[in-house]
Amino acid sequence: MSEKNDKRTLWNIEEIVSNRTDAIEKRRNRKGYDGRYFLQDFLDLNVAMWYGNNALTPKTSKKDLLRSTPSQWMFLEQGLRMCNWREETVKYYLLGNPFVWWVTGGSVFVYVAIVGFHYLKGKMLGYTMHSEEQLINNGFLYMMGWMLHYVPFFVMGRVTYLHHYFPSVMLLTILTGHLVQNMRKVVRGKVATLVTLVSFISFVYFAPLSYGFVGKPEDIVPHRMWRIMWNIM
């Protein structure tokens, strides 16, 4: 085909066959397959996803208003336009609840401070209370989940967007609830009520961005543009 390198050429891939995929299928179809090859399949799948994601590299030749970097996600430095931005279009701007994202991002530092405090306390007193161990151990599980979902994006070569952080922010939300749950009973209820109330107010306040608005952005959302990098206007 003489035009195979032409940029206008459209390729339709209907089937991919390779020796590697054939080997995996043979293992799965083998009589008595009982999960013994799960680890190998798991590694093959993750390696394939890793190389596939790294192939989705950003185009450095032009400015992309949609993509963002992992360092911008934790404290919601940038949102994501979900459609064209013409005046007559219903415009959707993907933006997390700022209050929730900022509080949950801060919970990482609070947890690290708590771990450091109890470590020094245990060294001085020679023992650690059971409740303190539970606080640290359960929090460690959520922190590890957050890191495993978040840190790999820093070393990936692929183009990244805000929605890639969603699993991580959910884990930080659980971590925040865990920290509030372990506060003193007198304070816990007040803090939980305050966080819930402010989260709801913040959600309602920023809802027009996520649920769509019509017209000029400068007429609708100037008071909601709390970060300079939010490319709403």
Structure description:
The protein is mostly helical and 233 residues long. It has two domains: 13-55, no CATH class; 93-224, no CATH class. The protein contains eight helices and two strands. A two-stranded antiparallel ribbon has the order 1-2. The longest helix has 28 residues, at 98-125. It is flat.
- Main sheet: which strands, in order across? 1-2
As residue ranges, the low-confidence spans are none
What gyration radius follows from the Cα positions, in whole Å? Answer: 24 Å
Give the CA-CA distance, first to last residue. 46 Å
Report the count of strand segments.
2
List the helices and strands and how they pair.
Elements: H1 19-29, H2 38-54, E1 80-81, E2 93-94, H3 98-125, H4 130-150, H5 152-155, H6 166-181, H7 185-211, H8 217-220
Antiparallel strand pairs: 1-2
Helix pairs in contact: 3-4, 3-6, 4-6
Which key features would you list for this structure?
233 residues; 8 helices; two-stranded antiparallel sheet; flat; mainly alpha
Give a brief rundown of this model.
The protein is an all-alpha fold. It is built from 8 helices and 2 strands. It has 2 domains: 13-55, no CATH class; 93-224, no CATH class.
